[in-house]
Specification:
Blueprint (H helix, E strand, L loop, with lengths): L1 H5 L21 H8 L2 H16 L4 E7 L1 H13 L14 H4 L3 E8 L5 H12 L5 E4 L5 H10 L12
Parallel strand pairs: 1-2, 2-3
Length: 160
């Protein structure tokens, strides 16, 4: 919200927020289920269809925390609306009735590494620029690891 409020974007940039009720530690599992629910996936698909119908041809996706989990859960259902990165040069989004996915940026993604590794080639097939920002001191990610992996097989690593 702060990025949108303080961003002072030029008129050509139209920010949209796709959000659902998030939670705290007590409601973590409920929020996690909601982020991967079939209704959330359908809402994503509908939003992208409406953007295409409105004439949008380029899209940048910025996720934060559990938004990365939501993006991952929805990706297979929405990947067909994007022009493949290996499309012939000069192929325009307008010709194909699709959009170009210009970038995917994940801030402190609450997404297990194996799931991202499995998803990465599919994202890369429609988006050449994928960026992840994280901080080992992010307590929300630490709690996500505790809830997702109570046995402790996933370990946070510290840089020297």
């Amino acid at each position: 919200g702060q990025l949108l409020a303080l961003g002072d974007f030029p008129p050509a940039i139209k920010p949209f927020v796709f959000s659902w009720p998030a939670g705290q530690i007590v409601t973590y599992h409920k929020s996690k289920r909601a982020s991967e629910d079939h209704r959330t996936i359908e809402a994503w698909k509908r939003l992208l269809q409406l953007l295409i119908l409105a004439g949008f041809r380029r899209l940048h996706i910025l996720t934060h925390s559990m938004g990365a989990r939501c993006f991952a859960a929805c990706f297979d259902a929405m990947q067909h609306v994007f022009v493949p990165t290996d499309a012939p040069l000069g192929t325009t989004a307008g010709e194909t009735g699709r959009m170009r996915l210009m970038s995917v940026t994940m801030l402190h993604p609450e997404l297990p590494v194996p799931q991202f590794v499995e998803l990465h080639p599919r994202i890369h097939a429609v988006c050449a620029l994928i960026t992840i920002y994280g901080n080992s001191k992010d307590s929300a990610l630490m709690w996500a690891q505790v809830f997702n992996d109570p046995v402790g097989t996933i370990r946070r690593t510290e840089r020297a």
